Amino acid sequence: SLGQIKSDKQQPGGVIYSIKGPGVDEEPLGIFSIDKFSGKVFLNAMLDREENDRYRLRAFALDLGGVTLEDPTDLEIIVVDQNDNRPLFRQDVFTGHVVEGAEPGTCVMTVDATDADDPDTDNAALRYSILEQGTAGMFSINATTGEICTARSGLDRETMGVYNLTVQAADMSGDGLTTTAMAVIYLEDINDNPPEFTKEEFSMEVEEQATGVDVGKVFVHDKDLVGSPSWLAKYTILEGDPEGAFAIHTDPHTNDGVLSVVKPLDHEVRDRFELTVSVQNEQPLEPMAPASPRALATVQVRVRDVNEAPIFRENPRRISVLEGTPPSTPITTYTASDPDTHQIQTLTYALLYDPADWLQLDPHAGTVRTKRELLHPSAFLQGGWYIALVLARDDAEPPLSATGTLSIEILEVNDHAPQLQPSAGVLCGRPGRGGTLLLGATDDDRPPHGAPFHFQLSPQQPQLARNWSITRFNVTHAVLAVLAELPEGPYSLPLLLRDSGIPPQEQQQLLNVSVCHCGRDSTCQDGALAAASAGAGITLGALLIILGSSILLLALGAARVRGRRRALRKGLLERSRDDMRDNILNYDEQGGGEEDQDAYDINQLRHPEFFSARAKPPLRRDAPLSSGTPLAPRKLPNSPSDIEDFINEGLEAADNDPSVPPYDTALIYDYEGSGSVASPLSSIVSSLTDEDQDYDYLSEWGPRFRRLADLYG
């Protein structure tokens, strides 16, 4: 039994004892019991101090009738500890790190264990020790705290990078129960080993003209931790590459040095390189580390000869050629050079681009000649330059080629004299009163071979200076003036026109001038006469178009026969209700009329073979004075029914005829019909005096013509 309780108030006949509390009637149940008559307390089960180190019970004393004899008494049962628990490490494996070469006494890690026994007794007094760590004995442990530190110097990761220690914890101050665990210590790398080349000399080769390619590798060995900055190598080319044609970089996976070409190499210039290369780590070497005997290596690089393309040393080649240079004229020799001087090769040449087909090229000598006359201007010129491409090719296998640009400047040559524009005109025959005519000229040459132009009367006819003078108006025009009053009529003045080219070009040309009768305002009084005698040329008289319009209205009003003026005038007015516009036509030329329909019969367009049957082409009515027929007759179309093509070809022939102004030779006229009541317009000039004319009828034509009737009636 654990003990016995007794009541001080024991009654005759006996006392009944009982206990209550944890271990009796509370969890854990049934551990303790009591003899109710003797008061002895018994232990019924095994006790574990680590679960309950004490039990607090209450004891009761009752008489036989169940009446409490005295107050309950506290009963405390204390469980005494026994060393029944081994120490336990907090983990099975402890991990620590220390740099290689650490000084003795450098602490790495701490191992710790626990014991479930009473910490106030030796049952839980733990002591630590190292059971096994190899033969070196590099580490020690604090028996009380479990701290592991270096015991001596000489830790070298390259010799042993990991230490596995077996540590023990024992209670009873080291004499009791024991347990073990593993302590793993890793040595951290430092750069205490320099990189070393695996050999002193490396050999490589590369093709010439190759850039951006790897030539080869150099190999090194480093004992430090792979992938760490202490292991990663850095290479430098110290000697043998003054032009900087090579570069070297590190392969981050293998730590090899990769040599590459960054500039093209030329076998003919240098066929071999001897490079001196050094190596070191990215991280600086520790001061205690020994120097490397293989920090330098020699790299022999051989440049292999390959076929290279020809080279045009002058590209583009710019030359100048005079326009009009005759065919087969040599203009330049455009050749390329072959860089392969150690190989026997032949270059051939061909024209790759010659848009106008102006050139021919010697395939062996590269001499460029003109194939035809170089024209200017041309659609193939760009700002006066002609661009051609020359191809040079060697005879290697496979052949290589190069392209050269030939830029030819077509120089302007003063090969055109200025042309008088226009070649006919009308002016008043009185000096100083409208007796001037504006002359102009054009030149097909480009500056500086064109304007300013020089106009003068023909030196071969000095008598012209008595009646005529020419003064400069601007760089392209001059003014012809009358010096003495001249009779009306046509005049042909030979003029000498000269440009400003080098050398200058000059040409004598005829100016057809029609001198008209001067009116009161110094203009031609009779416009119809002046126009008829001067032809269709555009002159300074065109500036008087307003006055000419009034004269035209007057001429239309006077178109009638003297003997039938009133009757015809009345007839015209009576027929005004009909459409009379077909009887008054715009001919665009002087001459012709109702009696002249045969000259411009529409059948000529429908049957152009009519012209071929004539002895000579019909005389052009729009040609100026003293002008001949076109130099080349118009070519008839293949299909006589194709009137449109016939007209277009006639227009082209007229435009290209230098002897007359550019008026079409074939004009289309509406058919006026027969029996017209209008008199021929030629009757207007049958009387040259105003006294014979009767203009009173104009007042009957309405307000617009009444003013004319007042002036001339």
From TrEMBL:
Residues 8-89, 90-197, 207-312, 313-420, 435-529 form the Cadherin domain. Residues 617-640 are annotated as: Disordered. The keyword Metal-binding applies. InterPro entries: Cadherin (IPR039808), Cadherin-like_dom (IPR002126), Cadherin-like_sf (IPR015919), Cadherin_CS (IPR020894), Cadherin_Y-type_LIR (IPR000233), Catenin-bd_sf (IPR027397). SMART domains: CA. Its main location: membrane. One of its GO terms (cellular component) is adherens junction. Cadherins are calcium-dependent cell adhesion proteins. They preferentially interact with themselves in a homophilic manner in connecting cells; cadherins may thus contribute to the sorting of heterogeneous cell types. M-cadherin is part of the myogenic program and may provide a trigger for terminal muscle differentiation. This is Cadherin-15. It comes from Pachyramphus minor.
